[in-house]
Amino acid sequence: MAKIGINIATGSLQQQEMIVGIDLGTTNSLVAIIHPESKKPVVLKEHDGNALVPSVVHFDETGLATVGDTAKEYLITEPHRTIFSVKRLMGKSYNDLKAHADFFTYRVIDDNTESLVKIQVGNAFYSPVELSSLILKELKTRAEHILKTPVTKAVITVPAYFNDAQRQATRDAGKLAGLDVLRIVNEPTAASLAYGMGLRQDETKTIAVYDLGGGTFDISVLRIAGGIFEVLSTNGDTYLGGDDFDRAIAEYWIGLLGLSREELDQHKQLGQELRLRAEEAKKHLSFHDTFESAVSGEKVTLTKTKLEELIGSYVQRTLDCCKNALADADLTVKDIDEVVMVGGSTRVPFVKESVAAFFGRKVHDSMNPDEVVALGAAVQADILAGNNKDFLLLDITPLSLGIETMGGLMDVLVPRNSKIPSKAGRQYTTQKDGQSGMRISVYQGERDLVKDNRKLAEFNLTNIPAMPAGLPKVEVSFLVNADGILVVKAKELRSGVEQSIEVKPQYGLTDEEVEKMLLESITHAKEDIQVRALVEAQTEASQIIDTTQLFITKNRELLTDEEVAATTNAIDSLQQLTATGTKDEIHAAIEKLNELSRPYAERVMDTAISRAMKGKNILK
Ligand code: ADP
Ligand code: MG
User: Fold this and answer.
1) Which of 353, 384, 415 is the last residue of a domain?
2) Is the pLDDT of residue 506 over 60?
């Protein structure tokens, strides 16, 4: 039964607040909910019956933003004020994008740095997070309008390959739009959920999710077991989609009509009309065999067969990606139990048939392919609302996470491939007497030395009360939450002082980078082991030097001059070897120093014990 509350301020009855599912797409975005009565996921539609909101933002001369269909109309006439494909910019620097700089018709600031991109419209600058938030705000307003209730909580989907920075940017955009983003979910996971896959604990399946949208293609291979989703591999092409089909059709017509580039440049409106008509033709041919219309008074036609010929090479490219994704997951088509079709472009029958033929099985296409991700997000939202308690949706960490310890060594807390959410902790202590601060540096990677890994964050645990070295107990804990965001906490257990940070890396890693880092860790494994052994010997040496020096100063009167001289000598040579010697030489010198100090250390100990026993009753 749904909970009903009373708003004390207004005296009105309130339904328990709904959590919406949002598909924030490159081309289109939309919102879905679980219908309160039917308990089935449904997309929210305006009166015109349209659920899709084009992910386009237009700014007028005064800087006023409009989002959706109205904004889309300016795409060709006011390209520099009309922002599309914001999703491609999320969490990216100009360097990340420059290979595709031509793609953007609006001004992407080229500051040639590693910092996050900005878009310039007139005199104003916008970050991708701000632009996405405008789209999300529009979706929120629509949802509130349709549901007639405030909407403040959401689940938002992102591509499976989105890295931490892109996920965080999406989360930030939600926050900026006034939404509490309860979870970021992978799009292929959401699509599978919409088809009811993964909702049974005893189900084990391998699923291929084929997502061909407006401008991007993604293939993801997922494994569900015990209600847990794991991404086995992802592949695709971030510049391949239905827009390419439209372009191919328009080019074909331009050829038939004998239009020159100059004519098209002069008549931007004509180009726009051709593209819109081309998309119309493509969509029409998903359900009919021929298309006939007119562009500027000229008749244009297209047959289904011709369309297939025009798009054949694009479809083949998607199949090549599928092949790669299977290879990466170490699977063959026979291992795939289900194939899920996602994205508006999979409505093209030729696409569907080609994919079915490739996988050698019937594909899931009963739901609207451009709605299925949002519907799945609504299913996830419902699970989070506590209406479906048994489920947790999990992913895995692609690289190990750890902190820097003495000598620049990587101490791994969360090994790679850990299921998330994941929690790990370990205790550390201070190296110097009275040390009041400790630097916690967080790294990601597989190498033994942090310098070869990627630094994610750094902070200081301060105000540790004065204690002898080795006494403070600093517990460092890592929590990787369900969105893959890492929270690092350090706490000195004796005093209770603590400090924590949320790691919002400016740059996450692409699949290729992860792969490269893994490969490097394998090729350098041997030398890494040697380096680690050397660093450990050096650390041990410097600790022994410290304690021995301290011992001598404290107990000077109990030692002979010869003993002090010999020990100081041994310390000096160990110190020298620490900088230049091999691991074995350092160990030998440590041993020598120990041998020298052992006799007088024992003597001092005996004196201390006899002092302590004086005048005391010892019980047996
Ligand atoms: P995205 O996930 O990139 O935001 P969508 O899943 O909404 O995009 O897909 C948009 C693409 O789907 C557009 O290229 C659009 O032309 C195409 N599309 C929508 N309906 C059809 C149809 N009936 N036949 C062919 N393509 C279609
Ligand atoms: Mg999509």
Assistant:
1) 384
2) no
Phi/psi for 31 (5° steps) reads -120, 140
* Same-domain status, 224 and 114: no
**CATH at residue 417:** 2.60.34.10
Q: Residue 168 belongs to what domain range?
A: 19-195+368-384
Residues with a beta carbon under 5 angstroms from ion ligand 2:
25, 213
219-268 pLDDT, tens per residue? 999 999 877 788 899 999 999 999 999 999 999 999 999 999 898 888 87
**Ligand 1 pocket by Cβ (under 6 Å):** 25-28, 52, 213-216, 241-243, 279, 282-283, 286, 343-345, 347-348, 370
Q: How far is Cα 548 from Cα 282, in angstroms, rounded to an integer?
A: 81
DSSP-assigned beta bridge partners for residue 423: 479
**Does 351 map to a domain?**
yes
Q: Which of 282, 350, 371, when mutated, tests ligand 1's pocket best, judged by the most ligand atoms within 8 Å of its CB?
A: 282
Give which of 172, 200, 198 is closest to 186, Cα–Cα.
Answer: 198
Are residues 429 and 449 both part of a single domain? Answer: yes
Q: Are residues 156 and 217 in the same domain?
A: no
Beta strands across the sheet bearing 409-414: 409-414, 401-405, 438-444, 454-461
* Ligand 1 center–CA 463 separation, angstroms: 57
* Ligand 2 mean position, distance from CA 304 (Å): 24
